[in-house]
Write a structure and sequence with these properties.
alpha+beta; Phosphorylase Kinase, domain 1; Neuraminidase; six-stranded antiparallel β-sheet; about 15% helix
Length: about 850
């Protein structure tokens, strides 16, 4: 079906056609809701009934929407209108790499600039478990500013988790369920394993990328033959013309990279695509200028250095630099960065800073789960000295030898807390208190003024100097870890955006002008300015919990600095380029008692286990994995008491078990648009999605009988609200007014306990009037400190919890709001644990589950990072 200007697909108004590909036609369109131009890809009408093609179309959207990277086109939305499926994505203004290659090979400088960006984008996708499977010049767009976007993950496939089958297919570019032997993709850029119909992984993309690099350098395809079958045969059995012969001006290190990518055997390619990206970036940053200047010398006029003398010089320069790259010596860099460990006790390093002498490191440390203390240690010496500030958190160290600390630090979450800001000399003496409710602080370069993040009411704000507000927000989950620039004219900081749970790196100047430099990070902690103020270094992760070290310029250009096994967090940068990092092991563990247990036991499965539902008989536990073990998306699991391993149910962020145990109502979180509610079978069967127009679902509970759900979610353009949803017809009706949060469902399914601004009420799910519950004034503070968990075994009692060490379960009488301690829980090993969160409990209290986050870290001094 052809679309014409002015026609509509959902909220998108078609403006003009842009092109067409194997997966559909693409149009320029206008998003009438947000007033922005987008690209809309539609599946042709003739293929709408093709279930296989439709599945690939939807998989493209799901794969691409999980990626968030400056070199990958952003997917905004997926939908359908009048039987036409479509994807709305970022509109990229520019030309394709294919259009650029029409004029022949690219200059080395331009080639490396484009190639490094493509490799960085591929590395991001590969880290997320996504293989492009159709990389070619047509799928690389270059803007007029030189920024690269990888387009059309139309043949992408989420990598199968370990243990899952391919459903019998051998098709190399299509997910399981297609006919065996089908080859989908562009022949000239296939890998040998793709052409042979073998299983693929990220190294297939490396081969395709090598073919693209070869064409960028030579202006011709690596395996061009007269027909498709001949081309595939050449890819499988033959080698391309040597790049040195086809393009003598190509620098040797780049030739070696192309040859490695074009290896017939996948094991001979790169073990990780971020290593490929790092090699290309190193050549771009340190080789291009030398090779170009040598080339200019070779063309010098008579009287200068003749070509016979210049050529050996140029080749020697290229070979020397190339050898240095291979050995890890990039133009004067140390071969390998050196890591000197500074802490050795079991616990968590909260913060660390260089002292003005550059040889002393000040750091906050919590040993064995106890309160923080501030220590100093000399580089190269094992002697530790306490600063006598137990219970205080280090915030910053000034150039004048003064600490900014938070006294009475109250932990509020990972890297979150607040206390009373005070100044303390490193030489000792009494602390001078300045300001309450301070979360983070940093000194100006002169060591006189302080920038702070402080909590004011429900909001957060950045002040610099104290009292002058530069930026303020509402009740965001996270705003902080700010650092003042070397010139004192700007502040870099991290912010967690409440709506999508994504971290961003931002900068604000002293006039309050704010810019977002980088976003799309699932985790971000630690931030510092480079010595020259041209870059901001930070530690972050696009998916999972393990962070790497990155840098971003003030124009928004990102680069990877280093990555190590596990996770690292940036603490500080010295004026001479040395780095303080903490190597961190972060786990979310869960423990408790299921039916038949006589003592608490570890229930953790992978590295970040979070319990979401427990059956009333205590025999089945639903939990979610959101760490590295889960991959790019959270995964939902079911554990039973029969001793069998947990079963993975699907990709979702939370779930509730049906009364008969056959279904889990799961919430799938989306980076764009509302969340989705799915029904996942616990055994054999097909899942299905429930449509909830105008509601982004969150918390879900089953009503008795298993034919209805109680769903709490955010209403489009409004607040949170609870709805009863029928499974047979999808009809929904609200239970309580907007803003009333669902706390617990009575076991008989007749009443729901809801809360709004410290007020409680019972709302009927059938007939009747709401029943307000009055909290006695004397108990309001105590009740406000409790989290309602679930209903107990009578009509007027609920279970509630208080986080801490230990965590505490309470029985709360709704008639008097008297809380009675039911049980205290804590891990046997408290090291690295800040708080225990009681999470689930059966109505009889015999089975329960609690969770806690454990962070163990070691502090390192690193030299040689650039």
């Amino acid at each position: 079906m052809k679309l014409f200007a002015g026609s509509r697909l959902g909220p998108y108004e078609i403006v003009a056609p842009l092109g067409a590909g194997g997966m559909g036609e693409v149009y320029r369109a206008r998003d009438t809701r947000l007033g922005r131009d987008v690209a809309v890809k539609v599946l042709p009408e003739a293929l709408s009934s093709d279930s296989g093609r439709l599945r690939r179309f939807e998989k493209e959207a799901r794969s691409a929407s999980s990626l968030n990277h400056p070199n990958i086109v952003t997917v905004y939305d997926i939908g359908s209108s009048d039987s036409t499926s479509y994807i709305a994505m970022e509109l990229v203004e520019g030309v394709t790499l294919r259009q650029m290659l029409v004029e022949g090979p690219l200059p080395v400088r331009k080639l490396l600039g484009i190639a490094a960006q493509v490799a960085d984008g591929l590395a991001k996708a590969h880290e997320a478990g996504i293989v492009h499977r159709d990389l070619k010049p047509e799928n690389v767009m270059v803007t007029k500013d030189g920024f690269v976007k990888i387009l059309d993950f139309g043949l992408a496939k989420l990598t199968q988790p370990e243990g899952e089958s391919e459903e019998g297919t051998h098709a190399p570019t299509v997910s399981g369920g297609t006919e065996p032997g089908i080859v989908v993709g562009t022949v000239a850029y296939m890998s040998p394993e793709q052409a042979l119909g073998k299983p693929l992984d990220f190294r297939s993309d490396q081969f395709s990328f090598g073919s693209v690099l070869y064409e960028m350098a030579t202006g011709k395809r690596a395996f061009a033959r007269a027909s498709g079958p001949e081309t595939m045969t050449a890819i499988i059995r033959e080698e391309p013309e040597a790049l040195g012969a086809a393009s003598p001006s190509t620098p040797a290190p780049l030739r070696w990279i192309v040859e490695r990518c074009l290896s017939k055997e996948p094991l001979d390619r790169y073990a990780a695509t971020h290593d490929l990206a790092r090699d290309l970036t190193g050549i771009r940053d340190h080789l291009v200028e030398v090779s170009l200047s040598a080339g200019q010398a070779a063309r010098a006029a008579p009287g200068g250095i003749g070509w016979k003398r210049a050529l050996p010089i140029a080749l020697a320069a290229v070979a020397a630099i190339g050898g240095a790259l291979i050995l890890g010596k990039s133009l004067g860099r140390s071969p390998v960065p050196s890591f000197q460990r500074l802490t050795f006790r079991r616990g968590e390093v909260m913060a660390a800073r260089f002292a003005p002498d550059g040889q002393t490191v000040i750091h906050s440390f919590s040993a064995g789960g106890g309160p923080e203390d501030i220590y100093s240690v000399r580089v190269g010496g094992p002697e530790f000295r306490t600063q006598g500030l137990r219970g205080a958190q280090l915030l910053a160290v000034s150039s004048r030898g003064e600490m900014a600390v938070a006294l009475g630090w109250e932990w509020g979450g990972p890297q979150i807390g607040a206390g009373t800001l005070a100044r303390v000399s490193l030489a000792g003496g009494a602390a001078r208190q300045l300001l309450q409710n301070v979360m983070f602080a940093d000194w100006a370069p002169d060591g006189r003024e302080l920038a702070v993040v402080r909590s004011v009411g429900q909001g957060r704000r950045i002040e610099f100097p104290i009292g002058k507000v530069l930026y303020q927000t509402g009740a965001v989950p996270y705003l902080g870890q700010l650092r003042v620039s070397p010139r004192g004219d700007a502040i870099a900081f991290l912010e967690l955006e409440r709506e999508n749970g994504i971290f961003s790196i931002q900068v604000v100047d002293r006039a309050g002008r704010r810019r977002k430099l980088s976003d799309g990070w699932s985790q971000a902690q630690g931030i510092a300015w480079s010595k020259d103020g041209k870059e901001i270094w930070f530690s972050a992760a696009r998916a999972g919990q393990a962070m790497a070290l990155y840098a971003v310029t003030l124009s928004g250009r990102e680069r990877l600095v280093t990555r190590v096994p596990g996770g690292i967090r940036l603490q500080d940068l010295s004026s001479d380029g040395r780095v303080l990092l903490t190597e961190e092991s972060t786990r979310r563990e869960m423990a408790g008692r299921l039916a038949g247990d006589v003592a608490d036991r570890d229930l953790t499965w992978l590295d970040y286990s979070f319990p979401t539902d427990l059956s009333a008989d205590g025999k089945r536990l639903v939990f979610v994995e959101v760490g590295e073990g889960s991959g790019a998306a959270p995964s939902l699991w079911l554990r039973t008491v029969d001793g069998s391993p947990p079963v993975r149910l699907g990709d979702a962020g939370s779930g509730s078990l049906s009364p008969d145990g056959k279904w889990v109502a799961a919430t799938r979180t989306r980076s764009e648009g509302p969340n989705e509610l799915e029904l996942l079978p616990t055994g054999a069967g097909e899942g299905r999605t429930l449509a909830l127009p105008g509601v982004s679902p969150g918390w879900v509970a089953w009503l008795p009988g298993g034919d209805r759900l109680l769903v709490e979610g955010r209403v489009t353009g409004g607040k949170r609200r609870s709805h009863v949803v029928g499974l047979s017809d999808g009809a929904s009706r609200p239970v309580a007014p907007e803003g009333w949060v669902l706390d617990a469902l009575r076991p008989d399914g007749k009443w729901a306990l809801c809360e709004a601004e410290d007020q409680f009420a019972l709302y009927p799910l059938e007939n009747g009037e709401p029943r307000p519950l009055l909290v006695p004034k004397a108990r309001q503070d105590a009740v406000a400190d409790l989290q309602i968990l679930s209903w107990a075994d009578d009509d007027h009692t609920v279970f509630a919890a208080r986080h801490g060490i230990p965590g505490r379960f309470f029985r709360l009488d709704l008639r008097t709001f008297q809380a009675t301690l039911w049980k205290e829980v804590a891990p046997a090993d408290p090291a690295g644990v800040r708080a225990v969160q009681p999470r689930l409990i059966t109505p009889d209290g015999k089975s329960y589950v609690y969770t806690f986050r454990r962070v163990l870290s070691d502090l390192y001094l690193v030299e040689g990072l650039k």
